[in-house]
Amino acid sequence: MLKKIALFAFIASTIISCSSSQNKTKNVHQVETFAKTISAEELKEMLYIYASDEYEGRKTGEPGQKKAIEFIKNFYVENGIPSPISEDDYFQEIPESYFHHGIKASENVLAYIEGSEKPNEIVVISAHLDHIGISSDGEINNGADDDGSGTVAVLEIAEAFNEAKKAGNGPKRSILFLHVTGEELGLYGSSYYTNVDPVFPLENTVVDLNIDMVGRVDAKHEGGENYLYLIGSDKLSTELHQLSEEINKKYFNLEFDYTYNAINDPNRFYYRSDHYNFAKNNIPVIFYFNGTHADYHRPSDTPDKINYEFLETRTRLIFTTAWEIANREERLKVD
To answer: Which residues are in the Peptidase M28 domain (predicted)?
Structure first.
């Protein structure tokens, strides 16, 4: 009898082990399939529109910024990706009274894909939609890299997750695609979301993957292989940092540069983009960044200077990292 029980236990464990292995293999195939829907061609097509003169530099509260939010909304509507606010209302209105120095009322843009198993746990993928507008001499600051690159990356990631869901492979956790306003003037949009009106409770928010300038190459990496600066990945969750490293080594093998992650970094980039308002609330973050360049905050930050091949791979990397976080059994631990 004991031999039969032992044999049954062995067979059962073997079946479970094989099933787990098959699931892992299936998951690898799925994530690679949907990551490949992110293309340099689509990123380029969108960015040439988003960083065009028509959008007048997307300064917070100004007409060009209003055109930008319509562009983002229309993308989600056309792809059938809903808003978490209400049907056909993708704009989180921020009143003029919330801003300082005469900044006009503005909007964050929100879309989401509901999770299949853990819908109340939220993975946030963010980028800022604004830029610095028109210079005093009348030149338009198009902000192709800052942060047109992050904006179109979020849109392509949203489309990839949506394709997965339509194919029956939607994420276990919900994904919030968060386009925030007012970053250039003081992180206003992310501050409003986290401090005033978190559409999803912050205690249910698993991570914020923030994408701010990912389309260029800085002087340090000119002529080299694809890379990214990662900031904040180990500040609140060792597990997030390890997961991020593993995903990169398994699928992409980019150079991860942690120069700006140093505690004594004089640039203080950790405090200078929208992820920080999530980190202040004890939510793990990664800030993806290509570093500054000669065209930073200048009219010469134009879409023809973007490295679209690099942008494609970087966007696929972020999508794959989000996929893993959204589909793992346990939520990320904060330590």
So the answer is: 108-319
